[in-house]
């Protein structure tokens, strides 16, 4: 992959690695490059796919830019691709399906923005350089020319390779211009810090501090998509901290930054904010099969109720009574504002609500263990979130007191063993009354209605308290309850 200038040894190694990474797509790139060349047009692989090839990261998205206009691409790609999508044609983008890959090919752009609504006035450009300078960061403003024989030339007019080697995020144009065009790019900087392990250039940091309020121009859906990518990155703590320290968090997730005002009651951390980031990091370490977005959101938000429940006690300590209840409501409100699905909102808020319950499992001596009934209720309330709740509770142990940390983990080991032991005897994942609704109506000789629901609820509570009952015993308990209701 030749370059306009002779690369030094470090750059040559990166370029060689990128060439090797692109070789897996060689047949596709040769075929596509030949198609564009035959039509008399230029074609460049661009953006994140070039960056990730240089970094040796896995990538599946292939984005291209070209001098061909959308209507021209439609003509010569219609016979080449397995499928075409023109949903982005107003922005110059044609989607192409080929051999199981989905490609996006966009005409060179040279947009202008009103700096108020972030609505671009779409203007097609005439050169690659013009297109690259309007991109978010220099590490995403590198390109590879695709010719008839595939990858042919590495193009880096804005110093993206040097920035990538230095692991620095900088903007192609002045950051005030770039972020003014699209304020979401500021949040994207935090996302790339999380995903790539990069830092931001000094002038970018200055612009973030000055321009953070402009994020209010961005829709909740776009913000949530960036937050999800940030949280599922390799180092979400770094991304969250940049967001909070620059004021971006004040706009999109103010509850997290507000935790800096609440000192942890155990005084083991600088404040509840850093405790929460530690919990997030430890939750990531406990994941089994890649990033778990629900777990990570719950870890980040689990203590957001503490600032509103902080109380200075007479003995000089600090308490946060019922912060899990308040925090669950706050998590629900924030995630609804970000337009998350009902399931996502329910799952995260329920984990926040339940994260503290385990701390009543045993006292400091390990005695006072829960009854079987309490264990059943713990499992039932967690439902399908039980595995995540296990991880969240374990991650929430951030004390530096090794003896206390060992005791907490041992107590939770004991609880999990209790759950497994009960699960061998009864189906804890589907705790149901020993009699169903039809049996209740037949035994009590009552029609369907609220009374059946009340009886069902009573039997459910009985089942949680005492475990499975024999059929005759359940019938006797039901009749006794019913008679008491009629008295």
From TrEMBL:
EC number(s) reported in the record: 2.7.7.19
Cofactors that this protein relies on: Mg(2+)
GO aspect biological process, one term: tRNA processing
Coiled coil location: 398-432
The keyword Coiled coil belongs to this UniProt entry's keyword annotation: yes
Enzyme class: transferase
CDD domains for the chain: HDc, NT_ClassII-CCAase
GO MF terms, alphabetically ordered: metal ion binding; nucleotide binding; poly(A) RNA polymerase activity; tRNA binding
Residue stretches making up the HD domain: 272-374
Presence of keyword Cell inner membrane: no
Keyword terms: Coiled coil, Magnesium, Metal-binding, Nucleotide-binding, Nucleotidyltransferase, Transferase, tRNA processing
PANTHER family membership: CCA TRNA NUCLEOTIDYLTRANSFERASE 1, MITOCHONDRIAL
Protein name: Poly(A) polymerase
């Amino acid at each position: 992959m030749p370059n306009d200038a002779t690369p030094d040894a470090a750059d040559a190694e990166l370029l060689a690695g990128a060439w090797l990474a692109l070789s897996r797509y060689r047949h596709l790139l040769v075929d596509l490059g030949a198609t564009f060349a035959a039509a008399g047009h230029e074609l460049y692989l661009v953006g994140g796919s070039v960056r990730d090839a240089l970094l040796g990261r896995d990538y599946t998205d292939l984005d291209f830019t070209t001098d061909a206009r959308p209507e021209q691409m439609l003509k010569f790609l219609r016979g080449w691709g397995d499928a075409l999508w023109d949903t982005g044609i107003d922005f110059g983008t044609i989607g192409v399906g080929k051999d199981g890959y989905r490609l996006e090919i966009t005409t060179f752009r040279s947009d202008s923005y009103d700096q108020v609504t972030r609505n671009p006035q779409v203007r097609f450009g005439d050169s690659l350089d013009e297109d690259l300078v309007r991109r978010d960061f220099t590490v995403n403003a590198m390109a590879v020319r695709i010719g008839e024989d595939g990858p042919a030339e590495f193009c880096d007019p804005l110093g993206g390779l040097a920035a990538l080697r230095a692991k620095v995020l900088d903007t192609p144009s002045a950051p005030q211009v770039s972020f003014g065009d699209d304020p979401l790019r500021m949040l994207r900087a935090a996302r790339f810090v999380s995903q790539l392990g990069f830092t931001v250039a000094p002038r970018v940091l200055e612009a973030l501090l000055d321009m953070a309020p402009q994020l209010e121009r961005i829709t909740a859906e776009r913000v949530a998509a960036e937050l999800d990518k940030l949280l599922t990155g390799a180092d979400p703590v770094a991304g969250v901290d940049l967001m909070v320290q620059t004021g971006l968090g004040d706009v999109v997730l103010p509850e997290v930054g507000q935790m800096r005002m609440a000192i942890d009651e155990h005084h083991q951390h600088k404040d509840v904010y850093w405790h929460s980031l530690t919990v997030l990091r430890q939750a990531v370490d406990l994941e089994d099969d890649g990033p778990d977005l629900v777990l990570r959101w719950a870890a980040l938000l689990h203590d957001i109720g503490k600032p509103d429940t902080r109380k200075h006690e007479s003995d000089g300590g600090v308490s946060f009574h019922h912060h899990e209840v308040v925090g669950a409501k706050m998590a629900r409100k924030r995630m609804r504002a970000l337009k998350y699905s009902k399931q996502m909102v329910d799952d995260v808020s329920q984990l926040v609500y339940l994260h503290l319950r385990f701390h009543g499992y045993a006292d400091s001596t390990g005695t006072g263990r829960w009854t079987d009934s309490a264990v059943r209720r713990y499992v039932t309330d967690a439902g399908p979130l039980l595995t995540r709740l296990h991880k969240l509770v374990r991650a929430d142990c951030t004390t530096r007191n090794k003896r206390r940390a060992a005791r907490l983990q041992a107590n939770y080991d004991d609880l999990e063993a209790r759950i497994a032991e009960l699960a061998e005897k009864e189906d804890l994942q589907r705790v149901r009354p020993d009699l169903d609704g039809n049996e209740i109506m037949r035994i009590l000789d009552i029609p369907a209605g609220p009374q059946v629901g009340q009886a069902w609820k009573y039997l459910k509570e009985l089942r949680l308290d005492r475990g499975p009952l024999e059929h005759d015993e359940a019938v006797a308990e039901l009749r006794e309850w019913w008679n008491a209701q009629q008295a």
